[in-house]
C-alpha cells in the first residue's frame, strides 16, 4: 500500500492508536514492533476494541480489508506523518536541548495558544515514534505546530527533522546529558546542533539566546536568526528581576511573575516570550500566559508536605541540570535546608567522575543535610558528615523511618528511573 492510499484511510479515521489498552473508537491502529512485542499479534484485538483499520507488516495477520498491509509499520507511521505535515502546510516550531525541553515547549504553547490554534507534543513524546504521533494529532484547524525533539545518539535530531520539516527551531541549551550515547559535551553540542544545520540548509529561522555563547558560536554567519536575551541589541530584550522563590522578569515595561523556581527557568521563559514576540502575540497575553502556567509532573514544582516545603525537580537529571538546581538552592535564604539527590543515568564511562563532582561541590558549599541515593552516588568518596549515602531507595526509607524531617526546605532531584517522588510518602 502506498502512502497516498494510507493517507486516505487515515482521513477516514478519528486519530491514531498504537496500544490496544487505549484504543480510540474509529482510529487507525499501527501494529508497531519492539524488542519484546509484536503489534501484529494484537491487530485483531484492536479492531474488536473499536479501531477502524489496522496497519500491519505481516500478511498472515491480514484477515480482511480492514487490515492495511505495508512493508514496515514504523516507517509507514513516519512517512504518513511527513505526508500529513506537508498537506497541512502550517508553521512547525521544533525544539531540542539538554535541559528544559518540555517546560519550554509547554510555556511556548501557552503563549502562542492565546492567539493561534496550536498543537504541541504531549508530555515528552519526542522520539522517532512520538514526533510522528504529534504531527498526526494536528488537524485542519491547527495553525501552528510545536514539536519537541529528544535524542541520545548522533543523527537522531537530523532524522526527526526529515520527518517534521520544521520552519523554526531552537535549542534550550547544551549540557552533560546522555553522555553514554554522545560520548562527550562536544558530542552533545554537535548532535543538538543538527537542528541548526537542518534549518540553515533549508533557509529557515532560528531562535537564539544571545546570552548563551555556545548558541551564538553555533549560529555564526547565519542571517535568519531571531535573538533574545539581556542585551539591548536583541530582537526581544528581557531582564531578570528576581528568582526567589519564583522567577520574575521584566519584558516590554511590565513585570512577569512566574510560578517556576530556579534561575535556570529564566531561559525557558525567555524562549516562550521571544517566540510569542516573533509571532506578534500581545504583550499582555504573553504576561498572562506565563503567569498562569503551573509546573506539573515533578518539574520545578514547589510543594507543601506537612511542615516541609519542597522543590520537587525529580522528573530527570544530568550533571548540568543537577548543578544548576544545587546552585539555585544554595542562593535561597532558608533556615533549614535538606537535599535529596538520586543517581544520574546514561553517563557511560563518565558516571563516576560526574557523581563525584557533585559530591565535591556539596562538600565545599554545605547546603545542609544531604542524602545521596543510588549505586553511583554510593561509590563516591564522602568526607563531610552532613552528606549521607544510601545504595538503594529502600535503605533511605529505613533510615527516614527513624529520622523525621520537620520544618525544612527540601530539594529533591534525580533521574527518572530513581522515582524520587516516592520520598513524599516518607515525609
Q: What labels would you give this structure?
A:
Protein-Tyrosine Phosphatase, Chain A, UDP-N-acetylmuramoyl-L-alanine:D-glutamate ligase, alpha/beta, Udp-n-acetylmuramoylalanyl-d-glutamate--2,6- Diaminopimelate Ligase, Chain: A, domain 1, 427 residues
Summed up, what is this model?
This protein is 35% helix and 20% strand.
Radius of gyration: 23 Å
Q: Which strand order do you get reading across the main beta sheet?
A: 6-7-5-8-9-10-11-12-13
Let me know the number of strands.
19
Count of alpha and pi helical runs: 16
Low-confidence stretches: none
Could you please say which CATH topology of the largest domain applies here?
Answer: UDP-N-acetylmuramoyl-L-alanine:D-glutamate ligase
Q: Average pLDDT, to the nearest integer? A: 93
Summed up, the domain count is 3
Give an overview in words:
- This protein has 427 residues and is of the alpha/beta class.
- The chain folds into three domains: 3-70, MurE/MurF, N-terminal domain (Udp-n-acetylmuramoylalanyl-d-glutamate--2,6- Diaminopimelate Ligase, Chain: A, domain 1, 3-Layer(aba) Sandwich); 90-292, Mur-like, catalytic domain (UDP-N-acetylmuramoyl-L-alanine:D-glutamate ligase, 3-Layer(aba) Sandwich); 301-426, Mur ligase, C-terminal domain (Protein-Tyrosine Phosphatase, Chain A, Alpha-Beta Complex), CATH 3.90.190.
- It has helices at residues 3-12, 43-48, 73-88, 101-112, 130-137, 156-164, 179-182, 185-192, 194-201, 213-218, 265-278, 283-292, 319-331, 351-365, 375-378, 393-400, and strands spanning 16-17, 28-30, 53-56, 67-69, 92-96, 118-120, 144-148, 168-171, 205-209, 225-229, 236-242, 248-251, 254-257, 301-305, 308-313, 337-342, 369-373, 387-390, 409-413.
- The chain has a nine-stranded mixed beta sheet with strand order 6-7-5-8-9-10-11-12-13, sandwiched between helices.
- α4 (101-112) runs parallel beside α11, α11 packs antiparallel against α12 and α13 packs parallel to α14 (351-365).
- It is globular, with a radius of gyration of 23 Å.
- Residues 14-79 form the Mur ligase N-terminal catalytic domain.
Amino acid at each position: 500500500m502506498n502512502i497516498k492510499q494510507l493517507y486516505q484511510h487515515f482521513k477516514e479515521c478519528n486519530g491514531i492508536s498504537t496500544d490496544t489498552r487505549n484504543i480510540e473508537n474509529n482510529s487507525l491502529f499501527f501494529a508497531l514492533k519492539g524488542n519484546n512485542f509484536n503489534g501484529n499479534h494484537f491487530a485483531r484485538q484492536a479492531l474488536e476494541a473499536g479501531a477502524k483499520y489496522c496497519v500491519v507488516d505481516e500478511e498472515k495477520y491480514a484477515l480482511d480489508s480492514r487490515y492495511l498491509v505495508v512493508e514496515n509499520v514504523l516507517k509507514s507511521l513516519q512517512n504518513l506523518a511527513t505526508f500529513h505535515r506537508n498537506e497541512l502546510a502550517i508553521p512547525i516550531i521544533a525544539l531540542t536541548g539538554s535541559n528544559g525541553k518540555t517546560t519550554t515547549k509547554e510555556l511556548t504553547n501557552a503563549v502562542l495558544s492565546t492567539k493561534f490554534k496550536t498543537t504541541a507534543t504531549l508530555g515528552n513524546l519526542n522520539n522517532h515514534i512520538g514526533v510522528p504521533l504529534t504531527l498526526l494529532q494536528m488537524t485542519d484547524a491547527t495553525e501552528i505546530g510545536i514539536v519537541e525533539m529528544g535524542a541520545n545518539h548522533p543523527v537522531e535530531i537530523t532524522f526527526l527533522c526529515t520527518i517534521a520539516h520544521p520552519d523554526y527551531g531552537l535549542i534550550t541549551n547544551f549540557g552533560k546529558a546522555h553522555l553514554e550515547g554522545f560520548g562527550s559535551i562536544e558530542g552533545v553540542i554537535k548532535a543538538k546542533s543538527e537542528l541548526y544545520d537542518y534549518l540553515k540548509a533549508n533557509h529557515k529561522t532560528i531562535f537564539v539566546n544571545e546570552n548563551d555563547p555556545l548558541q551564538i558560536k553555533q549560529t555564526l554567519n547565519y542571517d535568519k536568526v531571531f535573538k533574545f536575551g539581556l542585551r539591548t541589541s536583541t530582537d526581544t530584550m528581557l531582564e531578570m528581576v528576581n528568582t526567589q522563590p519564583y522567577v520574575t522578569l521584566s519584558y516590554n515595561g511590565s513585570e512577569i511573575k512566574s510560578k517556576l523556581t530556579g534561575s535556570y527557568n529564566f531561559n525557558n521563559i525567555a524562549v516562550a516570550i521571544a517566540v510569542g514576540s516573533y509571532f506578534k502575540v500581545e504583550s499582555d497575553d504573553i504576561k498572562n500566559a506565563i503567569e498562569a502556567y503551573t509546573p506539573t509532573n515533578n518539574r520545578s514544582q514547589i510543594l507543601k508536605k506537612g511542615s516541609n516545603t519542597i522543590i520537587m525537580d525529580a522528573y530527570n537529571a544530568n550533571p548540568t541540570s543537577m548543578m544548576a538546581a544545587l546552585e539555585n538552592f544554595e542562593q535561597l535564604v532558608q533556615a533549614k535546608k535538606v537535599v535529596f539527590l538520586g543517581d544520574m543515568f546514561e553517563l557511560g564511562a563518565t558516571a563516576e567522575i560526574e557523581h563525584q563532582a557533585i559530591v565535591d561541590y556539596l562538600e565545599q558549599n554545605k547546603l545542609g543535610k544531604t542524602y545521596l541515593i543510588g549505586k553511583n552516588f554510593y561509590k563516591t568518596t564522602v568526607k563531610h558528615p552532613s552528606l549521607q549515602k544510601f545504595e538503594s531507595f529502600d535503605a533511605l526509607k529505613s533510615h527516614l523511618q527513624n529520622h523525621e524531617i520537620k520544618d525544612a526546605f527540601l530539594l529533591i532531584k534525580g533521574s527518572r528511573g530513581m522515582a524520587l517522588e516516592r520520598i513524599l510518602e516518607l515525609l
